[in-house]
Specification:
The protein has 225 residues and is an alpha/beta fold. It is built from nine helices and six strands, in the order αβαβαβααβααββαα. The structure holds adenosine-5'-triphosphate (ATP). The site of adenosine-5'-triphosphate (ATP) has 19 residues, from helix 2, strand 4, helix 6 and helix 8.
Length: 225
């Protein structure tokens, strides 16, 4: 698959009824959730690998409205959505799904999957995660039920070892062949706050958006204070 960066339009209509649902053909849909604060090149690479190796009809990017596991203040959803829309342009199988932003309360993936299955029953759902989130799964709300509803697909991530938690032993999942990418949103926020370049870490349109909107700069005292 070619790079999705910087081309065409992003599909933002996950709620529509696809003709395949009507004809009974099962569609293969991937879900990639996260804070995306900001979306970065490893997210895009992970999504591309998932689409290809799982033969997905669609990969839905699901930014969290209230990422209940993140202690820090999250960037307003309007910015995170705008950056995602820029990063997703040009790959028609990428869909920006704002269901967790529009839903009140903590963003639970289990609720997202339940809604998806109710709305689109003729769906095989793949949950795409990096290894850090795989290790974290037992802390997720309703994770055992969640895993009964999806096929798990896991990509290696530098800095996170294969989990050894007993609860995760014996779980079946697909391995995504993502080349190691030492990129994280944390690193991007840190580099910005130190005045360092992030140009090699995010798609160019996203870098421009971050610059134009003065995101991730260190807190400054209001002028005149
Ligand atoms: P932060 O640094 O703020 O915690 P993040 O870079 O981990 O953010 P998220 O939005 O939390 O980004 O991640 C969304 C999903 O992408 C998660 O499943 C995460 O494991 C995965 N992911 C993010 N970066 C990588 C990477 N470099 N390699 C593999 N998977 C990744």
């Amino acid at each position: 698959m070619s790079s999705p960066l910087g081309r065409l339009e992003v599909n933002t209509s996950p709620g529509r009824v696809h003709p395949h649902c009507v004809s009974g053909v099962v569609r293969r849909i991937g879900l990639l959730g996260g804070s995306f604060d900001p979306v970065h090149n490893a997210h895009v690479a992970l999504a591309c690998v998932a689409v290809d190796s799982l033969a997905l009809d669609e990969l839905r990017w699901v930014p969290a409205g209230q990422p209940w596991q993140k202690a820090r203040t999250i960037t307003p959803s309007a910015h995170r959505l705008a950056m995602l829309a820029l990063a997703l342009r040009g790959e028609p199988r990428f869909v920006l799904d704002r269901c967790e932003i529009d839903r009140s309360g903590p963003s639970y993936t289990l609720d997202t999957v339940r809604e998806l299955r109710q709305r689109e029953p003729a769906t095989q759902c793949y949950l795409v995660v990096g290894q850090d989130q795989f290790a974290n799964l037992p802390t997720w709300h309703g994770w055992r039920e969640l895993l009964s509803l999806v096929t798990l697909a896991v990509a290696a991530r530098p800095g996170s070892a294969m989990p050894t938690a007993p609860a995760l032993q014996g779980l079946s999942y697909q391995v995504l062949p993502l080349a190691a990418m030492d990129v994280s949103a944390t690193l991007i926020r840190e580099r910005r706050s130190h005045g360092q370049s992030i140009d090699t870490l995010v798609p160019p349109e996203v870098a421009r958006y971050i610059e134009e909107n003065a995101l991730y700069l260190p807190d400054r005292a209001p002028p005149g204070s």
